[in-house]
Structure formats: C-alpha cells, structure tokens
Specification:
39% of the residues lie in helices and 19% in strands. The protein is of the alpha/beta class. It has a five-stranded mixed sheet with strand order 5-4-8-6-7, sandwiched between helices. It has a three-stranded antiparallel sheet with strand order 1-2-3, covered by helices on one side.
Length: 187
C-alpha cells in the first residue's frame, strides 16, 4: 500500500518530466537534427528507468519509512529485540501493532495456555509467526490444534526470520501476530 501511495504521488512529476524530454527531442530548425537533439537532451536530467523506479531495493527502502504507530523490529540479540528504537529483553508477543512481554523463556514452555490471549482476541490475526529461538523447532500436535481452532495459520521459524516476516506482513497491512523467543534460545 505504501508503494502504491508513493507511485501515485510521483506520477504527476514523472509525466511533466516526460513531456519536457519530448519537447527537447523535437528537431529545432536552428540547430539541425543530429547534434542539436543530442545537446538539448543532455541539458535535461535523465529520468530513471521504470525498472529502477519499481525495484526491490526501493520497496525495501519504503519499509524503512514506517509510520510511527506501526511496530518494526530493527535488531535482534541473544537476549531480546530492538523494536522502534527501544530495547526489549526476553520473549515478546506482537499482535498487529500491540507489543507485550511474553512469559515463555524456552520453546518447551510455549503451549496453549501461553497463547490463550487468542481465545478472546477479535479480530483474529490471519497468521501466527512463532519465533522458536535460534533454530526451528517441531510444534506439538496439541499446540497446532489449538492455533488451528482459533482460526489462525501457524508459521514456526527461527526468531530472526520471524521478526523479518512480521515486519513485512505488518507493513502490508495484514493482521498478523508474532510470538518470539529471543534468538539466543536453544531448546
């Protein structure tokens, strides 16, 4: 959505610049066709190609311009995370743009009770990203069944990739939740 806003805001400027370039490339009777057209074109700044204007690099840079009220994981450490410039120690539970401390310290402590907030929450997030610590861990059938019963999908990955995935999905405007153990946890 942020990409679309940026494109819509840039479009009038792009159209004006294209019109200027077209007028520069029309042959002028006083300058001749060859050298005059090249000199006129060199006087004007060249536009970036559309490929460059819509590259993956630009999309990544747009993610850095996150609204102030939106959560963004900026760094992770063995003991916690930096979110919107604030250092948080321990496990975190993120739901949309709500951030709270989460009680599990090891992956073995992640269970239906530790995720019971999803029984009463509305609207239910589309997906729960479970950050397992340093390594991906197998999720018990009971926990999978609980998460499925809430209406969410589950993605269990290491905490570093879980934080990145949360950033991307949250930036897209999707209703997403993340339950993250610190990256240093090896259960």
């Amino acid at each position: 959505m942020a990409v679309r806003r940026r494109v819509v805001a840039t479009l009038p400027t792009l159209m004006r610049a294209l019109r200027k370039d077209e007028s520069c490339l029309k042959p002028n009777n006083n300058m001749g066709i060859g050298i005059g057209m090249i000199a006129a074109a060199q006087q004007h700044q060249r536009l970036p190609s559309l490929r460059r204007a819509f590259s993956l690099y630009d999309q990544i840079n747009l993610i850095d311009n996150v609204p102030e009220d939106q959560l963004r994981f900026q760094q992770f450490a063995d003991t916690g995370f930096i979110v919107n410039g604030v250092n948080y120690e321990g496990s975190l539970l993120c739901i949309g743009n709500l951030l709270m401390s989460w009680s599990p310290k090891q992956f073995s402590e992640v269970n239906a009770e530790s995720l019971s907030v999803f029984k009463t929450m509305r609207p239910i997030p589309e997906i729960l990203i479970l950050g397992c610590g340093r390594h991906i861990q197998p999720v018990s059938p009971g926990l999978r069944q609980f998460i499925r019963s809430t209406g969410m999908k589950l993605e269990a990955i290491d905490s570093r990739n879980a934080a990145s995935t949360y950033n991307i999905l949250n930036e897209e405007g999707r209703i997403v939740a993340a339950a993250l153990l610190p990256y240093g946890v090896e259960d």
